[in-house]
Design a protein that fits this description.
It is built from no helices and 11 strands. Strands 2, 4, 5, 6, 9, 10 and 11 form a 7-stranded mixed beta sheet that branches. The protein has a 4-stranded antiparallel beta sheet with strand order 1-3-8-7, with no helix packed on it. A hairpin with a 5-residue loop joins β5 and β6. The termini are far apart.
Length: 129
């Protein structure tokens, strides 16, 4: 059974930082992409960032580019989302998800949540002004 467990959420003031972790287990496939998504109350789910295990490429939504960094530790099957310069608009439940299969030159087309098969339970991030 594939499981994704997020951690690292919390409450911070604007300008602060948080690092989210996504620990993945139960894989039966060798290649995949992992995406981070967020959903604020009353808003649609938004793709934040994604990373390819195939070639290590990364992609960021415009709203977080330059502030967030996605990385992976393949030995630990863990993906991180370092979030700096947080603003109140970053407040949301953040979830990680896995899309099996190879991905080269990951990009905007790879942040479609409908393509991701396995999801974590989410972790709350609250940024106060």
């Amino acid at each position: 059974e594939v499981q994704l467990v997020e951690s690292g959420g919390g409450s911070v003031q604007a300008g602060g930082s948080l690092r989210l972790s996504c620990a993945v287990s139960g894989f039966t496939f060798d290649d995949y992409a992992i995406g981070w998504f967020r959903q604020a109350p009353g808003k649609e789910r938004e793709g934040v960032s994604c990373i390819s295990r195939t070639d290590g490429s990364t992609y960021y939504a415009g709203s977080v580019k330059g502030r967030f960094t996605i990385s992976s530790d393949n030995a630990k099957n863990t993906v991180y989302l370092q979030m700096n310069m947080l603003i109140p608009d970053d407040t949301a439940v953040y979830s990680c998800a896995v899309r099996p299969g190879s991905t080269w030159w990951i990009g905007d087309r790879d942040l479609n949540s409908d393509d991701y098969a396995y999801w974590g339970q989410g972790t709350q991030v609250t940024v106060s002004s």
